[in-house]
Amino acid sequence: MPFDPTRHEVVGVVDTPDAEPNTVAQVVSPGYGANGRQLRPAFVVVSKRQE
């Protein structure tokens, strides 16, 4: 899933050669919302491409 700053908070970054950059590699803690509002963001690890 692509990283969305309105729904996710980055807690780590990993080098992943076979994943698209700026995608969620791991959900550390799920977020939650109600009635279309984000009450707590999900804490995620985001992938980046090795250079």
TrEMBL record:
Transmembrane regions: none
GO process terms (BP): protein folding
InterPro entries: GrpE (IPR000740), GrpE_head (IPR009012)
Pfam families per UniProt: GrpE
Gene Ontology MF: a single term: protein-folding chaperone binding
The keyword Chaperone is annotated on this UniProt entry: yes
Keyword annotations: Chaperone
Protein name: Nucleotide exchange factor GrpE
